[in-house]
Write a structure and sequence with these properties.
Blueprint (H helix, E strand, L loop, with lengths): L1 H4 L3 H11 L3 H10 L3 H15 L2 H14 L3 H18 L3 H13 L4 H14 L4 H13 L3 H15 L4 H14 L1
Helix pairs in contact: 2-3, 3-4, 4-5, 5-6, 6-7, 7-8, 7-9, 8-9, 9-10, 9-11, 10-11
Amino acid sequence: MFYLEKKDVKEAISFLEESGANDEKLLSLYKATQEYKKAYTLANKLYEKSSNIDYLAQIAIIEFEMAKDKRKVLKGVIKKFEYVLTVLDSHIYQNYLGYLLIDYDIDVKKGLYFVKKALEKAPNNLAYIDSLAWGQYKLKDCENAYINMKKVIDATGLNDDEIRLHWEKIKECNK
């Protein structure tokens, strides 16, 4: 952990890989550094060893993030999240699933249901508000989409490509 205190993530990863001291922390570092293949392998190992359902959700996220063609893994990722959410009441996973259902036009209403559940637990989370606005836009509720997206823009600006895209489309819709 000395390496983490010194902010040397590569050294921390090397140490944790060699020592096996803390696989949970190693998984977190793999995800943070976008080493998705290593993260995927480790998350699967941890899930098989513990049957901890949280690892299955992490596997779903990693699977989706590392996929070159996201549509190819979408069905399996959604299935994993739906299973996880029968056991866990996690706003992170609710929003992730909700956003996928909305963004890929699979079931926008169901996606909004999950996003709203996430917002009940974390009402000021800007990513969740963005998901809400995007779902409202997809359902042609342009006025509410604009109101919610404006909150996101006012707080974060337009530095993120996805937020900028959502803002442009929602502004067009609201005219």
